[in-house]
Amino acid sequence: MSSELASRMTNSGIVPDRTRRSATNRPEEAPGERRFSSVGSLVALRLVLIAATSYLLLVQEQALNLSFGSAALVTAALASNLGFFWLPRSWTSAPRFLAGMILVDTAWITAALLLSGHFRSEFFYIYFLVLFVAGIGDNLRLIVLGAGAIGVAYVLSAVSTSGAAALWSSQTLIRIPFLIAVASFYGFLVDRARRDRRKADEEGRAHRRQAEVNAALEREIAERRRAQTVAVKLSRAVEQSPAMVVISDPRGQVEYVNPRYCSVMGATSDEVLGRTLIEIGLVPDDVGTDSANPLRDVGEWRSDASLRRSDGGELWVSISLSPIHDDEGELIHLVAVVEDMTHVKAAEETLKKANEDLKKLSQMKSDFISTVSHELRTPLTAMKNALDILATIDTSAQRETYDRFMDIAARNVQRLSGLVNDILDLSRIEAGRLEYNFDELALPDLLANVAASLEGQAHTKSIALSVDVPADVRPVWADQRRLEQILVNLLGNALKFTPQGGRVELRALPRGDEVELEVLDTGVGLSPDDCRRVFEPFYQVDEALTRNVKGSGLGLSITREMVQVHGAELAVESEVGRGSRFFFRLPCATVRAKEMSDLEKRFIEYRTYPFFSVLIVDASASMAASDDELFEEVARRLEAALPRSADRVVPQAAHGRLVLVLLGTDPRGAAVVRGRLSQKLASDSFDCNPPLVLGPASYPTDGTTSYQILQAILGTPSGAVTPDRLEVEIPTERTTAAQA
Amino acid sequence: MEKPKILVVDDEPDLLTTLQFRLQQEGYEVETAENGLEALDRARANRPDLIVLDVMLPGENGYRVSHTLREEEQQAGRARTPILLLTARDLSSDPEREKMFMDFSQADVMMYKPFEIGALLERIQGLLGHSAPIHP
Q1: Whole-model pTM?
Q2: Is B114 touching A (CB cutoff 8 A)?
Q3: Helix, strand or coil, per DSSP, at residue A569
Q4: Which of A2, A308, A400, A583 is deepest in the core (most CB within 10 A)?
Q5: Tens-digit pLDDT profile for residues A554-573
Q6: A43-75 residue pLDDT tens
Q7: B55 to chain A: which residues are within 8 Å by CB?
Q8: A374 with B89: Cβ contact below 8 A
Q9: What does the alpha-carbon distance between residue A100 and residue A391 come to, in Å, rounded to a whole number?
Q10: DSSP state of A438
């Protein structure tokens, strides 16, 4: 028990303070001293008794009567007296010893009296009377006085019977002191014995009381410990609670906030203590009926709220307020438990947004469907009408008419099929099944053709459509059909969004090893928001009430995909009211690239190879200055070539493992790229096994075609590429010569 | 007998050509317009006996053109010119929407693309009040 508790307990009188009590209740000397003095008194008294008895015994009729017996008795008595000093202290205070001593002394004194012929004399009986008095007496002084009185009475009676002369006989006279000595001695002993017994009784009582107190104390301690355990448990529960707990007095002044509150709200305990629940925002100020003390009658109360943290952040919480009453029903505390609902709120928001997105998407899709259906029906109508007409006329007679309508029909068939292709393209892009055919393309002719095909549309709106391409521009490496499609889309858009009398330009600008192709218009332009979103599928720049924009909303997203497959990026610059510029860069064709394309063509045979499909990335035309740059470029080319659906790479599922062949790097560079590429590909989401990355062990010379390399790879026994076959030996003379 | 004048409005040149040809074959005089503004101009200038009006037009769409023409007719107290709307949007499954457009445009008939030319001719006949086609 702590000393504080102890002192509190003793102060309240529960525990008797033993040291204090013994000081006030028993004025005695130290136990050791006491025993010594008692032994001394004992011996002295006994000596007196012995002397008196000896005199009685030995001196009779004024003559010394020394018999052997008497001498022996006296000597023994004296010896025993001396022997006291050698006895252990504990013996001399033991009650049994005293009792024994009393018996022995009584015996020998009686024997002495007998020997001295006092038996049956009155003195003998008086002796026993005195013993009796000593025995029952309480006070030593009274005993002695009593004995003295008896002695005097005896002497007086003797005097009265025998006369005064008899008084002076030594025998009679010595009887008084003898009686006194006996009385003193026995009285002392009895008194001692009584005292000891009393003390023992008291000590027994004190012990019992002490035991009772100890038991009570122990019960109390056990009780307190239990309460403490409960208190610790509860306080830990509050301290470590995931919820914020705020405890206030009945007026709402905060008395305690748990650590969670401090950490979540970014406040220290001191900052909050003393403020009211209303001030810290947990309870609105109109919660109760009493405006002066709004929290007075508040019962259990629950609400959602938003709190502001010390760093300004907002927190969504759910607050429950409970009033706490004491045993008499008086309100003593208000406890507010605050749960952070921010994540729930955030989840709600996410869900709401996802819902909205879904709704928007479904709306976009149904808009798309209705737009597409319109787009499909228009050429169908024209075709149908034209064919109807053709059916009714006489083809031989009305040749011109016939031609005209045949043209119309044919043109609309084209248009329809183009649209259908667009839609299929889009769905194929989504499923990742687009196939490209790269080749060396001469730009001047291509651009001229594209522009010519849209001349009619431009003319209708009196828009000046021009093409600007230097005659000496290098050929680019692209898929012709797709490039035409890209340019037609861009030009078509430009024409669509440019008002009458505007200008649309198609330009090719050499830029080092690339050619930048751009379509400029003086049309309505795009807002920065539109610029960001214009390539999204189904996104259409909003027009008034009914859609006055023809198209599926897919054109630009398809166009962008096609540009990306070329390893380029379609971008837009625009200003509302001024016009727009759509542009991208294509790589110039190189010999190597051409060669690769041959290989790819041959690959068509191998593409259906049962074990894998192969993708070749040629890094030899790279201008990368470091391994990092090289890796980035290779990764970019790879990503452009691999079909993707959203952000997942979807290689042709039928071909199992995809093998990536890296060409045109030196061995060290190849190793670096290979390592990093493997890592990167392992981290992308693939819909099948991540591709093996192979690189030639030595730099392929111009004499070796890529085809030969692949033959080497593919020509392994069993025809399958094993994962551990990462190094490929190029079987050329120059290689072997280099090794030698 | 004077040939009835029909104004055909559609931004699709091919469709315009085919309709014009066919209607002329049937003995109608045909004028064409390729956008809303042109349609309004022609309609005001030449007062056709019937207007075949595509809904999807650059500038003012077909509904607006029809609406405007009706307003002008009412203001001037003129007789109603039959207006036939053409749309590629299939609104037959959305009668509410169709009603909304019809109410707004105050046209007489809405036809859906693609259509049978024969059916179109019949509707035109009906609107013009002829019992039989006119041959040149």
Answers
A1: 0.36
A2: yes
A3: coil
A4: A583
A5: 678 888 877 876 767 899 99
A6: 777 787 777 777 777 766 556 666 777 777 778
A7: 546
A8: yes
A9: 160
A10: E
